[in-house]
Every structure is written in structure tokens, then in C-alpha cells.
Amino acid sequence: SSTMSLSEAEVQSARGAWEKMYVDAEDNGTAVLVRMFTEHPDTKSYFTHFKGMDSAEEMKQSDQVKGHGKKVFSAINDMVQHLDNSEAFLGIVTPLGKKHATQLKIDPKNFRIICDIILQLMEEKFGGDCKASFEKVTNEICTHLNNIYKEEGW
After folding, report:
1. Rounded distance between C-alpha atoms, residue 51 and residue 37, angstroms
2. What is the pLDDT, as a whole number, of residue 154?
3. First vs last Cα of the chain: how many Å apart?
4. Which one in 21, 62, 90, 119 has a CA-CA gap of 20 to 30 Å to 31?
5. CA 137, CA 133: separation in Å to the nearest integer?
6. How many CB atoms lie within 10 A of CB 130?
7. What is the pLDDT of residues 63-110, one digit of tens each?
8. 137 phi, psi to nearest 5 deg
9. Closest Cα partner for 20 from 69, 75, 92, 73?
10. Helices (runs of H) and strands (runs of E) counted in the chain
11. 87 contacts 11 by C-beta, under 8 angstroms
């Protein structure tokens, strides 16, 4: 009774694609955030310690940016490990969504932004097939996060 719309084959290829990114979790996580903050400067407003940083170079060097990039990648990694178990998957996504909705008050559109940047980076580094096999996963993640936001009254 899975809430996930991914076949076993899709789960396997998504995991393979993600592994390539996760090998360099800190670097890739940092690259994703730096790109988000640079291309969507309003997203910086949620992070008090990144607010004053304007140059990508400065952000790349920031321990806070690196730390949060790694956090984002670990969370996604946990989700990817549980794509074939919707209960475990939701056990990871639900508290994360609740925290971002209620405590951090992050606009849910930012999840789509960050997922799109991850897909962009995947395509640049590993090609279109890699990106394509992970796209369904990012859609699952964003759909579930949006549902949690709705439950929290967004």
C-alpha cells in the first residue's frame, strides 16, 4: 500500500543517480545552496547568517553554507534509501516538512527551487539520463512536503 508512484526499477536507477551526487555531499550540497542564494537572493532571507553574503565565493567558503548543504543532502539521502517503504519515507519527510512550515516558516516553493537546482547540477555533471532518473524522486519529495504544508494550514 505504497503512496509512492515509483516502480522498483525507477527506485534503483534513482538511487544510482543520487549516489553519484552524494559521494561529494558537502561540495555538491554547497554548490546547490550557493546557486540558490545567487539566482534567488530572496531565499537568503531565511538564513540570518547568510544575509550579508553577496559573493558566491564568500558563500562557498562559509561553514554555515557548507553545513546546511550537507544537512540537505543527508536528508535527501535518507529519503532515497526509503523510496520503497512509504511509511519510513513519510517518517523522514513529515517532521522535516512540519519544522519548515511551523518553526522556520519557509515558503514551500523553495523546495521546488532547490530540487530543480539539484536536477540541473546532476545534468551538468552526469548527463540527462541521470537527471531524468531522479526527477520523479524530487516530484515525490515536493508533493509530500506540499501536502504537509497544507495540513499545517499553508
Report:
1. 9
2. 92
3. 27
4. 90
5. 8
6. 21
7. 999 999 999 999 999 999 999 999 999 999 999 999 999 999 999 999
8. -65, -45
9. 73
10. 7, 0
11. no
Sequence-distant (≥ 6) Cβ neighbours of residue 151 within 8 angstroms? none
Take residue 91 and report the three cell numbers written for it: 517518517
Q: Which residue has the cell 516530484?
A: 139
Above 80 in pLDDT, residue 4?
Answer: no
Q: Which domains does the chain have, with CATH numbers?
A: 8-152 (1.10.490.10)
Q: How many Cβ atoms sit within 10 Å of the Cβ of residue 75?
A: 14
Grid cell 553577496 is found at 54
Q: What percent of the chain has pLDDT over 70?
A: 98
One-letter identity of residue 13: S
pLDDT grade for 3, boundaries at 50, 70 and 90: low
